[in-house]
Design brief:
This protein is α+β, with helices and mostly antiparallel strands and 297 residues long. The chain has two domains: 120 residues, no CATH class; 151 residues, no CATH class. Helix content is 23%, strand content 22%. Strands 6-11-10-9-8-7 form a six-stranded antiparallel beta sheet, sandwiched between helices. Strands 1-2-3-4-5 form a five-stranded antiparallel beta sheet. The N terminus is likely disordered. It comes from Streptomyces gilvifuscus. This is Integral membrane protein.
């Protein structure tokens, strides 16, 4: 994401030089903060309002990091869309839309405002609360697992072309996941390199049974019968008539195309990306999840 240093909004007793902004809504939130929308809000000490928030991230005149929370979601969405298109946009929310000015940044930001000191946390006497800080993604865990799933969703074509569909099934036609039960989907494994940046780099899958995949698919099916917290299942645009599905749960993330396969990442398997073939059950599961998923408005 790209921001602008021209806009300014009130933060504490100084102006905020805007660096970037993100949406915090049920359909689109920084997944690094949580498995669902309420969990992401809780990470910032915010109530999970139905309409969500915009997070305006920047520095004050002393260089201190601030995150200004506003309830004018549409304004922030327009700014993000403009920046994504390479257009300038002066993001200056009305002070009446400001919900809170939180010290620190909840996400890693690689840029800084020109002409002010280097980014640093505000003085505790001004901040009045511990500063926000990005989740630790230097080691494998929930935050990096979710970032890995984000990257697969963004780079679906790159990941998909690495998968040989013939690797999913055994020569006798049995599911590679193994036991013949209806819960067993065709499964494989792709190694990933998650050192340094949270991106992943996959290889060819090796067919094998996998209890973790069975657990994920079972928990995802349970979401259809008993809806999970808002935002745990999200549906977004994909080419053609397909949708990109994203589902998360305790210790797992799933990324899928409704007309194709799925990928699973597990906290218990550091750096691994597990492809799941269509099989007899996956298409119906993806269709059901898509019907109950949260979609961008």
């Amino acid at each position: 994401m790209a921001g602008t240093d021209e806009g300014a909004v009130a933060a504490a007793d100084d102006a905020l030089y805007v660096l970037t902004a993100v949406l915090l809504t049920p359909a689109k939130f920084p997944s690094v903060l949580g498995d669902d929308y309420p969990e992401a809000c809780a990470a910032l000490g915010l109530a999970p309002l139905a309409d969500g928030y915009g997070l305006v991230i920047g520095q004050d005149g002393d260089g201190a990091r601030w995150t200004v929370v506003v309830d004018d979601v549409s304004l922030v969405a327009v700014a993000i869309a403009s920046w994504d298109c390479g257009m300038e946009y002066d993001l200056s929310p009305d002070e009446r839309s400001v919900v809170a000015a939180l010290p620190g940044w909840p996400l890693a930001v690689a840029v800084a405002a020109p002409g002010v000191p280097e980014p640093h946390d505000p003085d505790p006497e001004i901040a009045e609360r511990p500063p926000l800080a990005p989740p630790d993604t230097t080691i494998w865990g929930p935050a990096q697992r979710r970032l890995g799933a984000d990257e697969i969703a963004l780079q679906w074509a790159v990941w998909r072309e690495q998968i040989d569909d013939g690797a999913f099934a055994n020569p006798d036609g049995a599911s590679a996941a193994g036991d013949g039960s209806k819960d067993a989907e065709e499964a494989g494994r792709a190694d990933s390199d998650t050192s340094g940046e949270p991106g992943v780099d996959g290889g060819q899958p090796k067919p094998q049974g996998h209890n973790g995949i069975r657990r994920v698919l079972a928990e995802a099916r349970a979401y259809v019968e008993s809806p999970p917290p808002l935002g745990r299942v999200r549906s977004s645009f994909a080419p053609g008539d397909a949708r990109t599905l994203r589902a998360d749960g305790p210790g797992w993330s799933l990324v899928a195309r409704t007309d194709d396969i799925a990928f699973v990442l597990l906290d218990a398997e550091p750096g691994e990306v597990l492809p799941v073939g269509r099989g007899p059950e996956l298409p119906g599961l993806l269709e059901a999840l898509d019907k109950m998923a949260v979609r961008p408005s």
